[in-house]
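We emphasize that the prediction below concerns an isolated chain of 215 residues; any contacts that depend on oligomerization or on bound cofactors are therefore not represented. The input was used exactly as deposited, without trimming of termini.
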Amino acid sequence: MAYKKALHHLRSALLISVLAAATAAHAEPQKFTTIAPIFSQLLVVSQPANFAPAFEKAVPDRYLRESVPKGETVDHWTQMISVTGAKGLANNRDITPESFAGLLANGFKKSCPGSFSSKALGKLHVGTFDGFAAVAGCGSYTSSDGTRGETALIVTIRGAQDYYTIQWAERSAPTDKPPALDDAIWMQRLHDLGPVRLCPIVAGEQAPYPSCVAG
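Result of the prediction step, given as a token string:
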């Protein structure tokens, strides 16, 4: 019952997400911003307007939300933006945002040791919280639904108590060569995810979380 209530609350938060058009001076693509309670904090993250949430799961110590371009599914997609939460992991001071990003990148490496490449984009500051960004990819790997290439931006954030990740993955035709990781492309993707923020959960406050919107 607690799980169902938590999942209902998270879904309601997404449905009442704050919509933000980002056109104007920088001619950014239109995007929308979600504010969702994930364990001990509210996570703010943006994504292009042509993406839509396609899957969400909350269990006692893990949270996952996957969004794909409209018309695609979590089984058949060209791009995917994933948001995760790991409850209590920030209390382990041996795990840094950089080392956590490395663990995620190693997941790619295990899938394609012969065509793997990765690149660190560097440390991030999400308000007062530390983060790290990297890119990792496979030129070619095989899964149950075929062979393809895949590259992803990986963002890790150490919150007050929990760890959060945002991953923007893109699939491509398979190649035996490691993928070329163009800094400009992936830094733009990182920019498009902004603003990324963490806010405290205010007791009794409901979506659209005005205290976090104002921040």
